[in-house]
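I had to read the description of the data format several times before I understood it. The format is easy to grasp once an entry is in front of the reader. For illustration, here is how one protein appears when written out as sequence plus structure tokens:
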Amino acid sequence: MTFPRISARIGSIAESATLAVDAKAKALKAAGRPVIGFGAGEPDFPTPDYIVDAAIAACSEPKWHRYTPAGGLPELKQAIADKTLRDSGYEVAANQVLVTNGGKQALYNTFATLLDPGDEVLLQAPYWTTYPESIALAGGVPVIVETDESTGYLATVEQLEAARTPKTKMLVFVSPSNPTGAVYPPDQVKAIGEWALAHGIWVVTDEIYEHLVYGTAEFTPIVKAVPGLADTCVVVNGVAKTYAMTGWRVGWMVGPADVIKAATNLQSHATSNVANVSQVAALAAVSGDLTAVAEMKRAFDRRRLTIVALLNEIPGVTCPEPQGAFYAYPSVKGLFGKTIKGVEINSSADLAGVILDEVEVAVVPGEAFGTNGYLRLSYALSDNDLVEGVTRIKDLLLTAE
């Protein structure tokens, strides 16, 4: 008998489209090309000094040179519990926290712990590229609930109910959203939470952009809106976006104690503890104030307004104003059927390819997020690069025939 070299389970996983675009942009830059990258969701700010200083000090402490508990440093778990009360308005204990190697491991741990083969998971599109892959890897079946710019990329209870079946075990709920920047208003968060509770559906909520909301929008933790969900909800979060710590790889799960214990058992065999120096840095981050975060937020807000205004000046492009995170998600369907530099545009992937090839600007096509006809542009880059990049795109798209 001949066995395949790669298992069907792993062979079915697609590469992260956002990381692929970012890697290509960085490779072109390394080759000396003047590429501007809107691909990766990564703040362009350095990690705040007080966090770096804590990590430097930890490097000299021999106790951090050894294994520590697989579920996280006890003091960090308590600090995350305290931060949850401070920022989200509800109380959890330290044994309801698992510290993970970034938000992606927190998501996989959650799906692997809660899902059995064939369990259905309601997932709103546009979605972050990792969600469906991680769900499927854990044996779950993503059931896509489509949204678009006409509703601000928000799903209704009616849409969710229409997608529910006897196999529906879970809802993935994300606000603020990657890739759209959409933020659910409090009353809609409450309605969705009450619907999930009434039907016994688990909620996995990704709150990693909780501090990045703008204008009159407000972040509403779903467990605070519907306290009854506390026993059937897992919150995924981390330090990456809020504190400009993408490379430090610290995330966490917050949920019922039995779920966290089971997920900790999984992690004990998969990776064991997160790097101790990173955990000490995360402890400084979540225990400190939000002054540095507020400064970054002001810059993101300025860039948000700039990128939306510039994109909406381009014929065939329509960009709703994002209310959170640091992404714009314009519709480019108005350019379908047109020809740009000899290439007929029939998809957002076609358009993203032409933009990179012709004007050396990297954007992520909407297909990566489950919706053809859109582009995702991260505005977590310098003001000058933002204006230059969108101007290059505009000049190119004005040549469309």
About this structure: The chain has two domains: 8-46+292-397, 66-287. The mean pLDDT is 95.
